[in-house]
Amino acid sequence: MITRNTEETIALGEKLGKLLSRGDVIALKGDLAGGKTTFTKGIGQALNIREVINSPTFTILKIYKGKQTLYHIDAYRLENNEYDLGIGEYEDEGIMVIEWPEYYKSYLPEEYLEIRFTYLDDDKRQIDFIAHGPKYEKIAEVMNVDTMY
Ligand code: ADP
Ligand code: MG
User: How far is the CA of 97 from the centre of ligand 2 (A)?
Assistant: First the structure.
């Protein structure tokens, strides 16, 4: 669907956050400034995370405590170095959100939810949900419906 401003992308992230459960893996792909980190803020709201979620580019991994633990990864700086963050160990403990998963190919499990962000103009972003594996089919279907709630 298309969001028309930052707040709508946060609301969409919040909608997804309410559908997630422990062990879920979400891969955020797409343009720089596409809204990946903004969307993650919405997931954080749904998980009652009080800390401000911002771009983890310089730390690669940030861990936030909420109703579920959120593991927020930005793999951009890994550049496919195949550096092992040991993330797999945490998978069952919370929710994984990975920006730039294409730079961390060694990690992605067989099943995950992909979200594609496309920069349309200053304020508009197209956001599409693609299920990889049956586990995420229902969620992708619900999220691709053209309504925020
Ligand atoms: P990414 O993590 O994909 O690089 P960010 O979420 O960090 O992107 O940045 C998106 C930027 O675009 C923010 O400055 C945000 O305020 C702005 N923006 C404008 N319109 C939107 C929108 N519809 N959805 C998300 N962000 C938007
Ligand atoms: Mg980002």
Answer: 11
